[in-house]
Amino acid sequence: MIQSNALVHRPASFLLILVAFAITAWGPAKLRAADAARPNILYFYVDDMGWGSIGPNGQARRKAAGEIYVKTPSIDKLAREGINFTRGYGCHVCSPARSSQQTGFHQGHTFADRNDPNNAKKAIRAEDITMGDALSAAGYVTGYWGKWGYGGSKAMASPVIENVQTLPTSHGYQHVLAELHHVRAHTFFQPTLWHAPAKTDSAGGLALVANSMAAYRDGDVYPQTPAGQSHVDYPQTAYCDDSYALATLDFVRRQGMNYNESGQPFFGLFAAQIPHAPFDEIAQLPQWDHAYADDPRFGSLANTSQRWAAMVSRIDAHIGNILAALDDPNNDGDTSDSIASNTLVVFQSDNGGPGGSYVGELDANGGLRGTKGKIYEGGIRVPLVVRWPDKITPDSTLSAGSNSDRVLDVTDLLPTFCELAGTDSPLGIDGVSIAPTLLGKGQQRGREFIIHEANDGQSIIRGDRKLIIGRRSTVELYDLTNDPSESNNIAADNEALVDELKQLLEGERVFEPRGFANTYHRWTGDDGEDASDVDNWSDYRYSNAGVTYLSDDGPPQMSWVAQIDHSGSGPQKVRANSDLEFLALQIQGDSKTQSRQTLALGAGVNLMGRNEIRLGAHSVLSVNGGTVSSLRWIDVAPDAVLQGHGSIDATIYNRGDMLVTGEISIGKDFYQSPAGTLSIRFDGVDARPLEIAGVASLGGDLSLLAAKSLALKPGQQRTLLTANRIEGKFANSGGVIEINGEKYMLHYTRDSVVICQE
């Protein structure tokens, strides 16, 4: 078998090939220099800020009640102009939160599923496609400032690069000022930070630079609040979040002007360390508590609460300065060059807040049970605000200034950004794009559940129910709508639901040992070979500096993200003689020669793609009496074909061709776009209709194939398909369909489509 990753680092050419395949094989990105429809994306990501720390999640209520409150005017303004997602989720601690954020995989599938002493060396792998990878390949200018946490050593004096393949510069980020080890981020006064682009050749394209405010002291160019960088008492080594914030401000100004000139959008991610401990360090800064100078009650708070609140208000003020740059990129006081209207802004914390005096004195976790590191809501539910003035308005689907109880997980942001950027999501990820909801158009795909791991157990949230399996196999079930504080365990009264959710949770691999993750594989066999044969697939090995962290050289299994792609002339067929399971599978023909790549399932053979099955252009999936299933969907791209008979236990999104050659049932929903075609072979008077258990959303064309005349008489009709609910109609001209020269009328009921004599 062929090794897919035996490299210490990822060459640039490998990155370009990997990301280009992920994008061009499934809905090519339109890499235009000017594309005003694509938004800029600015993502603020803070560290350890509890759900209740911002105005709309509780601090505004405290203010109205005359209590001392945390001041976050910039974030609160974002919420008034955008949407506050009251059920936003991160992870339980820092490292898995960043890994899930960047890769779109939840903790059961991403490599860094918990804080691990060696995560800095190994967290994000060469094959993982991150936000930076996807958006830079889609033509965005990209930047990252703040706590990255992976790839560098923890030495404070002379840190070194320890794993090139896990660096931000190895994953599409072009402009960087970052901390590469989470232990070095346990102070705000690191003497050096990692910077790109580097002025000289260096490992990973990063160079160490002094953590200093020297370049930002000009008060005519840079705001002096909140940093106070020109104050005589400001330390020589900067408070790192001041450095990150002003570097972000520079980027937004430059790229805002570039956007106005060229139309090239940008993606910037500011990952602040605030308000992570240590708290006392902020008191080394001049006027550190100026945000609360007019509140005499501030001094009555515990020292930790004072410092924590000052940190939160400090980062809020930095966010306000950066948002002001969207309104006035060239900083001349004239906002006619504003780019704010077409900039998507996201604010989020990585996990819930840790325990401390501020939880009680300032209600930082909003009354939720638990704190950082715990599986309860206080550990994983986070503040999450989204603003996009062009699309989020008082009249939009999600209206500006509103709260939404829609569940939005950190893994959903990568696919959302990808869709808005005009490119498709990386294969197999757990996140689901909410772009159709933000845009108010298109088909919003559902996400049935989200999962989390923590030190004290694992959880699955589906709708308003949350199941927790504790470390000692304890079982807890909560109704989050009526019991958000998780105080009433209803597991004993809902045994069937507990069993169902536990089975789903186990299938998401959250009970695997540390170091388990999805693996990446490609077809290496010849035409006509068997997909069940281990020798026809690439091996997987993740290693660095002579240490192998993860390997898989076995046959296909549920952790595989696999691709069968054809390059060359002439059709190629892969057979499946026994059942196959994948986390995700993509089949892709050759786009240059338009040669077909077919996966032909043997009689009664079943295929499972737990997260998804993608049929790319010039591909064919042939079903022969077995079951093709996915917990989510099968995507059929233009010029792809899903054909055969049997059972399909998945939602189908058809933009290509679906050919029904015999009795077939669809266990979930069926959506056909205007580009799609549904063809049904309809032989014999006893032929059963296509049965769809869920919604059938119809568009595009319908074609009927029959070996002989149907010879329907006036008043007779035949049912073509049934569904729980029919939406829309096929685009056949005049509602007429022709079979062997005979014309019939299409008629639609609430739950069926029939033909009758014209």
Structure, explained:
- It contains 13 helices and 34 strands.
- α7 (240-262) runs parallel beside α8.
- It is of the alpha/beta class and 758 residues long.
- The strands form four sheets. The protein has a 17-stranded mixed β-sheet that branches. Strands 1, 2, 3, 4, 5, 6, 7, 8, 9, 10 and 11 form an eleven-stranded mixed β-sheet that branches.
- It is globular and about 95 Å long.
Biggest sheet record: 17 strands, mixed
Q: Can you give the helix content as a percent range?
A: 10-25%
Strand content: 25-35%
Number of H/I helices: 13
Poorly predicted tracts of residues: 1-36
Number of strands: 34
Q: Please, what is the average pLDDT?
A: 92
- Which CATH top level class of the largest domain fits? Alpha Beta
Number of domains: 3
* N-to-C span: 60 Å
| Dominant shape | globular
* CATH-level-4 superfamily name of the largest domain: Alkaline Phosphatase, subunit A
SS-based structural class?
alpha/beta
